[in-house]
Amino acid sequence: MLQKGWYHGKLNSRPLFFGTRDGGFFVPVFCLRIHNGTNYEEEVYRMAIQIPRGTQDILPGEVEKWQLIEDKAREICRNYQYKEIRTPIFEHTELFLRSVGDTTDIVQKEMYSFQDRGGRDLTLRPEGTAAVVRSFAENKLYGQASQPVKLYYMGPMFRYERPQAGRYRQFVQFGIEALGSQDPAIDAEVISLAMEFYREMGLKKLRLVINSLGDSDSRKAHRNALVGHFQPRIGEFCEDCRHRLEKNPLRILDCKKDRDHELMGSAPSILDYLNDDSRQYFEKVKDYLSAMNIDFAVDPTLVRGLDYYNHTAFEIMSEAEGFGAITTLCGGGRYNGLVQEVGGPDVPGIGFAFSIERLISALEAEAVELPLKEAIDCYIVAMGEEARDFSVPLLQGLRRAGFSAERDYLDRKPKAQFKAADRLGAKFALIIGDDELQSGSAEVKNLESGEQKQLPLSEFIEEFGKLCQ
RNA sequence: GCGGCUAUGGCGAAAUGGUCAACGCAUCGGAUUGUGGCUCCGACAUCGUGGGUUCGAUUCCCACUAGUCGCCCCA
User: Is the ipTM of this complex over 0.95?
Assistant: First the structure.
């Protein structure tokens, strides 16, 4: 029996939908007014539609930051010779099961998966590497003349998580991948590109942490050693750690609750399980980083959340104060064997990805001033109907000549038009009214100096160009 | 998936169980009939949504939604 009242959104825990007969169109809003348990009247109305949880609109004023970051990222990729690749936003779910790993959190609880009308199992990409590697194998880029193949991508990724500072359900990642080389110098290059990019953006409080996960044999041996180490006394650890013992014993090492347990300090380190090749490889990467004056710390507990990583792994964290709980700006590592996993030849690879959202937060946390220019060249202050008409082609002429120009569209008073010009940061105001139209010359005011000049309307664009120089 | 906090105009932000809900910024209008930045005056809110308690709720209670912080995990 329903209580008397209004119901909307959900009724008996089922969403209320109003749809047409063909079922193809839904307006997810309407209301039921219950008079008693059985009588009700419907009132259909549209509720304001809100942005989906964990997503954001990037509005003018904010989007300029994004553009700047994107430009900078593209620029540094040119310098380092990474070429852009664009892959679909959704892929076969299978791709992520096999690459990211079907026991990882990303796959188990964070994927936006769906079936299309043809019954295909698809997933909105939760990360970028899998698709790039798939494309590399599918398009046989390993046969390309220039090797290694160095790629970058930039675009939205999707993970179903509870939003929090620095965490969104749709977020934009920039990432690079270098495929086809097993030279430790390429590992160092990938890391240096990331560090160099952040440096150029103006971030200072950064911490680079690296580790080697070794090859799959060393990882396996280390894993067994860890399980053996903690197993006998796992009862003394927190609930999360007890799960981790099976799932990902390395994670126990950076548990915040059990940090001080005596078994933590004596736990076996991955670095003791590296074979000679892996060890030497790691040494070489560190040497190269030092040679480039890149500061780093080795953290043997650094693990990455995706299954495909091996050998070099790294993270860049912000140490800016008040940055919140999520400090990782960038994460990456080597993934030898991944290309094979998705059906290609055995080609090694390494890459990283960072989120633009977190970069912007870090820039804000460090109060970095970005060079965002927004001034326009000319604002036309038109008074009277004739002048307003005249301003239409004039505005077009200015813009065609390459000037940024604007006029009033709200029929505002001259005073308000000047205010608008001011707000846009206009360098000049062009004033036309009846007098000017009659005399054939317009007043041009330099809004910074207040200086005012007359320019002939007949060759206004040329004269204005000279004035701007 | 779990827990804490929050929800007042375009933005920021007070107060209050009871006639018109402070203030600041922004915006628009006026003082100044065609010249911005300063000053003064004026205009501008069905208090997230839905229920409940009450004579009366923006205020108290519940649910929902959203935001936010933290856990898990990650970019």
Answer: no
